[in-house]
Amino acid sequence: MSNQKIAPSILAADYANFASELKRIEETSAEYVHIDIMDGQFVPNISFGADVVASMRKHSKLVFDVHLMVVNPERFVDAYAQAGADIMTIHTESTLHIHGALQKIKAAGMKAGVVINPGTPVENLIPVLDLVDQVLIMTVNPGFGGQAFIPECLEKVTKVAQLRQEKGLHFDIEVDGGVDNKTIKACADAGANVFVAGSYLFKAQDLVSQVETLRVALND
Ligand code: DX5
Ligand code: ZN
């Protein structure tokens, strides 16, 4: 499928060298850079914020796919729009006002994404499906890279793809967590077309050929 996109997660890169890590990603065939924002409250880990994303923007022309794991992400819509985020994806579990928050993201000129944790049912997405450009189904519990893929989450990918068809909608379906050359094909078969991969990609010296292993696995 031509709309398949690989999104290397910068969470797994060297934080002291974001400029050169972004250059490494630019050299691959990846379409997106996945950028994880963690506040130490919504998830038990802290990464970085909008100012760092703004600095990264100077070093990359790739699509910035920003995944916010923060409480009340609507507070930061303008900050990420100004930082140069292309897609801003927020958790249903992180705000009482998911509908309004997604409207705010779109009004700020970004693509809007909605994401659910492994323990959250697909039904919680239904009221906002017609608002979004991307649905992200977490395939690990958020907070850390390098965790094992949870295969049970793929049923939710299939359900979301069915709902998209029934409703005649066109959003992308992304998966995040434990994606590697062994799990990516099942994600695609379930209906996902955007694939985040962190530890699997960055453990390799040669990022270019490691991204290609995902494309090969997709075509198996
Ligand atoms: C986890 C993050 C992921 C993470 C994925 O909370 O949302 O984007 O970087 O890392 P891997 O691919 O190592 O599971
Ligand atoms: Zn993520």
Strand-helix topology:
Elements: E1 5-8, H1 18-27, E2 32-38, H2 50-57, E3 63-69, H3 77-83, E4 87-91, H4 98-107, E5 111-116, E6 134-138, H5 154-167, E7 172-176, H6 184-190, E8 194-197, H7 199-202, H8 207-218
Parallel strand pairs: 1-8, 2-3, 3-4, 4-5, 5-6, 6-7, 7-8
D-xylitol-5-phosphate binds at residues 9, 11-12, 34, 36, 67, 140, 142-147, 176-179, 196-200.
The overall number of domains is 1
Pattern of helices and strands: EHEHEHEHEEHEHEHH
Question: Uncertain spans, ≥5 residues at pLDDT below 50?
Answer: none
The mean pLDDT is 97
Structural class by helix and strand composition = alpha/beta
Q: Give the overall silhouette.
A: globular
Radius of gyration based on Cα positions: 16 Å
Number of helices: 8
What is the CATH architecture term? Alpha-Beta Barrel
CATH-level-4 superfamily name: Aldolase class I
Enzyme class: isomerase
Keywords: Carbohydrate metabolism, Cobalt, Isomerase, Manganese, Metal-binding, Zinc
GO biological process, one term: pentose catabolic process
EC number: 5.1.3.1
